[in-house]
Amino acid sequence: MDGLSKGSPLSTTYLALWFRVSDEGLIEIRDKAALAFESGFASERGVTTWAGRMKKLKELGFISCREGSTGEFHYVLIVHPLVAVKKLLDEGIIPKGKTYNILSERVIEVGASWEG
User: Fold this and answer.
1) Nearest Cα to Cα of residue 57 among 74, 76, 82
2) In this structure, which long-range contacts are made by residues 59-67, counting pairs with CB atoms below 8 Å and at least 24 apart in sequence?
3) How far is residue 35 CA from its own chain's centroid?
């Protein structure tokens, strides 16, 4: 994931979202500053940096967002990560190679499915 964002790591933002998610995968973000802080962005530009990471997660297909009272990322749906990765593989954004092989081994090991 971080390798797809050219110097702007996404994993801390993604994990902060995962820590808030319920079984349905839907998060309502009422306090962007708190989520920015939880994502590791504590500076004055924290919310701006966080929003940039959210846009990249959306662009890559790891999240789906709907606008609400707090802006573009008020409602966030976490897409099953294997579904997002498979789409990126199919589009050629992620090349098959060592990283793909390691992920595939782990998918089999835990009994998961690429179909989510």
Assistant:
1) 76
2) 60/1, 60/4, 60/5, 60/10, 60/84, 60/88, 60/93, 61/87, 61/88, 62/1, 62/10, 62/14, 63/14, 63/17
3) 13
Contact predicate 41/50, CB 8 Å: yes
Domains of the chain: 2-78 (1.10.10), 81-110 (no CATH)
Is residue 63 within 8 A of residue 37, CB to CB? The reply is: no
Tell which residue, 56, 57, 33, has the closest CA to residue 43.
33
CA dist 37 → 30, 44, 83 (Å): 14, 10, 28
Can you read off the two tokens belonging to residue 21? 């998610």
Coil, helix or strand for 95?
coil
pLDDT block averages, 10 residues each, the chain of length 116: 91 96 91 96 94 97 96 95 92 88 91 77
Is residue 79 within 8 A of residue 62, CB to CB? The reply is: yes
pLDDT of residue 116: 60
